[in-house]
Design brief:
The chain has 551 residues and is mostly beta strands. Helices cover 3% and strands 33% of the residues. The protein is built from two helices and 49 strands. The strands form six sheets. It has an eleven-stranded parallel β-sheet, covered by helices on one side. It has a ten-stranded parallel β-sheet with strand order 3-6-27-30-33-36-39-42-45-48, with no helix packed on it. Strands 4-25-28-31-34-37-40-43-46-49 form a ten-stranded parallel β-sheet. The longest helix is centred in the N-terminal third of the chain and has 13 residues.
């Protein structure tokens, strides 16, 4: 009988921007004859790893990726056949001292930016920046922005965002009005809300300024005293973002029409809209307004022409512009175990950057995840970890963690540790925290979570441990909220929040922010935390720790 000999030695493959998928991948650089050297793509390295396993390889496997940008048009999916073992994991890592970018976008340079070619468009631009505005035609680059402005927010699906623009590794801002702050909703003509209202709601209904006492299939209509609207071309894809009723339920929508001072959204919001009476909600701004391109670092996507208009930020002539395209995660771990992703930069997605769908002992370590329209990523399975990573400039949240069995209280023991998580919630600010816990028995330890509009940590489930974190400057644009939040389910017990440092929570612009918020009958424990400027006394007299047992 023929026996398959097991190879337990380490096997390493190399990938480089100047590689070739016809080569062996066994050296980091091409040879002098250019007849052998590294692979060019990650998928070719994955194929080599799988072939090695099929022919008896059982030792540690490693894919070392050379410096440069690798554009992915499809997810790199790692399945069961790509697994390592506890003693011999499979490692995908950046070469020592080199910057490796896995990008879901297309990289542009200053040479791709052309002066505005349409005199009618140029005439609409702000005179202070008219000569600076540049355009990029998107269709030749395989980008379509046809259709309405993308809806995101409370009560709506988390779908990939519109393409976004980044320069020198930071997000640029969609042109908006007002530049800072919000406009006030005036008269409410049509509440326009989607949810089913209970027969005896426990909150004020109809909303202040509303006209209906039952759900309306019609869209929201309201007035706004803003004279600048008269000069805007709404056919180019202007949208609106607002806290329409509550300061914790925002959403962004396309517009149907603007006539005089009357604004009609193209769809209903989840809770409807209300007049701005100085309390919660009733505030919004317009975005993607061509005529309000007025500052370096702003852009507008003209949905009629398929052209991106941009005021380049200072230094772009020698810099790098990234247009996000990929709607799928860059890396998906689907059933693999004992996989390591080390030292990589993941960027330029319209959705999430990574997904660990299941498996065990998979680790993202020392990675930078940034400049995405969705979350940094999601982690399921058991004993998986995100550690020593830098997650920032994200359209939605940081890390979504799930796993475990609530019926048996079997813990999954997934962990988020030693990470710097900040500047998330750019597009969809509420209920997309830095860390979102679901299931049983996860650990969030030694992280710094900061600079965000809503929660730092949102917990569902049982027996989670949140400890030794520094949490500051969150809840910056919301109220009736907390840096750590759990609520609305009395079976979610055993969550421990201890030995954390909460400081500078809330912005002072709204009332009702706390450091730790046990809401609507949720039960948890807060022990040994340190608070400094970590609560406000507002309509609910919220402080550092707020326990709300409902009505």
């Amino acid at each position: 009988m023929t026996m398959l000999k097991r190879n337990v030695t380490m096997q390493r493959w190399h990938v480089a921007v100047d590689g070739n998928d016809q080569w062996s991948g066994l050296s980091a650089a091409p040879n002098a004859a250019k007849s052998d050297g590294p692979f060019a793509t990650l998928t070719r390295a994955r194929a080599a790893l799988r072939q090695w396993r099929r022919t008896g390889g059982s030792g540690p496997g490693e894919v070392t990726i050379g410096g440069g940008t690798y554009r992915l048009t499809e997810s790199l999916v790692l399945g069961p056949e790509d697994s390592g073992t506890a003693e011999a994991p499979v490692v995908w890592r950046a070469a020592d001292g080199q910057e490796v970018r896995l990008s879901g976008g297309v990289t542009l340079t200053a040479a791709d930016l052309a002066p505005v070619s349409d005199p009618a468009v140029a005439a609409k631009l702000h005179p202070d920046v008219r000569a600076q505005v540049r355009q990029i035609e998107l269709a030749p680059r395989g980008v379509s922005i046809a259709g309405p402005f993308t809806t995101l927010g409370f009560g709506f699906p988390d779908i990939p965002a519109d393409p976004e623009v980044y320069a020198d590794d930071r997000p640029l801002r969609v042109s908006r009005w007002p530049k800072e702050g919000y406009l006030k909703i005036g008269e409410v003509v049509e509440v326009g809300e989607t949810r089913e209202v209970p027969s005896t709601p426990s909150w004020p209904w109809p909303p202040p300024g509303g006209t209906h006492d039952s759900p309306s299939p019609r869209t929201a209509i309201f007035t706004c005293e803003e004279p600048r609207m008269a000069g805007w071309d709404f056919g180019r894809g202007i949208g609106a973002f607002g806290y329409w009723l509550w300061d914790w339920a925002p959403s962004r929508h396309p517009l149907a029409s603007v006539t005089g001072d009357r604004v009609t959204l193209a769809e209903a919001t989840f809770y409807g809209v209300k007049r701005n009476d100085g309390g919660q909600g009733g505030r919004f701004y317009f975005l993607n307004v061509l005529e309000e391109l007025a500052e370096p670092g702003e852009y507008c996507l003209d949905r009629r022409s398929g052209i991106l208009y941009l005021v380049p930020p200072a230094g772009t002539a020698n810099g790098r512009i990234l247009l996000s395209l990929l709607e799928k995660p860059l890396v998906v771990v689907q059933g693999a175990s004992h996989v390591r992703l080390q030292g990589l930069i993941l960027e330029g997605c319209r959705g999430d950057a990574f997904a660990v769908a299941d498996g065990m002992d998979n680790v993202l370590s020392g990675c930078v995840i940034r400049n995405c329209g969705g979350k940094a990523g999601a982690v399921a399975g058991v004993h998986n970890r995100v550690e020593r990573c830098h997650l920032h400039d994200l359209g939605q949240g940081g890390v979504y963690v799930e796993g475990g069995d609530r019926r048996t209280l079997t813990a999954a023991c997934n962990r988020v540790e030693d990470c710097d998580i900040h500047d998330y919630g750019r597009l969809n600010p509420c209920y997309h925290p830095g860390v979102n816990l679901n299931g049983v028995g996860h650990r969030v330890r030694h992280n710094h979570i900061h600079h965000a509009p809503h929660f730092a940590i949102w917990a569902h489930g049982n027996d989670h441990l949140v400890e030794f974190n520094e949490i500051d400057r969150v809840c910056l644009d919301t109220s009736d909220t907390g840096a750590f939040y759990i609520g609305r389910n009395m079976s979610e017990r055993g969550v421990m929040v201890r030995h954390n440092y909460f400081h500078h929570i809330g912005s002072g612009l709204h009332n009702g922010e706390s450091a730790i918020y046990f809401d609507d009958g949720a039960l948890g424990s807060a022990v040994g935390n340190v608070f400094f400027k970590a609560g406000t006394v507002g309509h609910a007299r919220m402080g550092a720790v707020f326990i709300h047992m409902g009505k």
